TrEMBL record, chains A, B:
Segments crossing the lipid bilayer: none
Coverage span on the entire protein: 89 to 267 of 269
Biased composition (Polar residues): 113-128
Domain Homeobox: start-end pairs: 5-70
GO cellular component: nucleus
UniProt-annotated location(s): Nucleus
Record's protein name: Homeobox domain-containing protein
Organism: Eruca vesicaria subsp. sativa
Location of region: Disordered: 65-132
Biased segments, Low complexity type: 77-87
DNA sequence: GAAATATGAATGAACG
DNA sequence: CGTTCATTCATATTTC
């Protein structure tokens, strides 16, 4: 009953030794190791098992994030952690949600309905975009005339001369987009 | 390092269609689209789901940065090494590995102390990744000595064995869309 | 064996 | 623009 090779990419699992080393390094308080450090560490850890820079990097990132997160939970704090809104920090209640968050990786590309955060709530005016539900054919939608412009690299001289098209600097952390 | 503005509560998730379009545009070699282009793209993509200029801009930036990271061998890692066990018989059945790695938490974090003999990992009778498979370097890398390096921000060049990542490697996502 | 949990991996958003 | 943070997702592992 099983299939055959499904290209199951198993995620890297640190060996105890690797974990020990990683923990130790993390405990050094070095914070986030630089890329160079990452390489060193990777090199070191590769002696104890297969590992890559990305693995090490991810590990540190996760470790950091996890530490931060842990502190905020109801660790030693007083009881009564009432959540007013249904917002709740979904943390461990992964699939407790009614919605199906777990989509097979094969189908991950498929439209999962609409998980976009719609500001329109309460009025039930959630407009499930039918377009998303449609299968995306290689030709994409249709009215992509826009693409025609974009596919033209020479089309840059369109607005570049206006003098007003400054850099994207203002794009950095603006809140004007009212998202 | 003060008030981190993480007011971004809801994270925009591109729909498959949007992703396709974005990928397409990015692949056109347009590089970083102008502001005008961004607007056009946003407009087009908004037909397939909620999106903003900022989202589009971020996406392109991230995409670009990611691409560059790969060739530079930054954190982008180099070799995607899975577990040595990851041969080909990997099936969707979780039972494939048969044998649970029963490593007590005591060993998982392994407070170390001063003990060097990590025989504890001997539980590898079911360990999915035999570490002995890896060839030990003649210099017998010391886990601890690496820490010294990390403590020294100035000394990044210690092992000097990192001469591996040169070629292009795709570590990142393996988008299956567009199939 | 399924659920719950832990954690590695992917990615959007922010910072400098 | 490169790097880092924060959040989510997927899968391994542990528990019931």
């Amino acid at each position: 009953t099983l299939g055959h090779k499904m290209t199951a990419r198993q995620r890297w699992t640190p060996t105890p030794v690797q974990l020990q080393i990683l923990e130790r390094i993390f405990d050094q308080g070095t914070g986030t190791p630089s890329k160079q450090k990452i390489k060193d560490i990777t090199e070191e850890l590769s002696q104890h098992g297969q590992i890559s820079d990305q693995n090490v990097y991810n590990w540190f990132q996760n470790r950091r994030a996890r530490s931060k997160r842990k502190q905020h939970g109801g660790v030693g704090s007083s009881n009564n952690n009432n959540n007013n809104n249904g917002e709740s920090e979904v943390e461990t209640e992964t699939e407790t949600l009614n919605g199906k968050r777990k989509i097979p990786e094969s189908l991950r590309v498929l439209p999962d309905g609409n998980n976009n955060s719609n500001n329109a709530i309460g009025t039930a005016s959630t407009s499930p975009r039918p377009e998303d539900l449609c299968f995306q054919s290689p030709e994409m939608s249709s009215d992509l005339h826009l693409l025609g412009v974009l596919s033209n690299p020479r089309d840059d001289h369109l607005v570049g001369k206006m003098g007003l098209s400054d850099s994207y600097n203002l794009y950095d952390h603006v809140e004007d987009y009212g998202m």
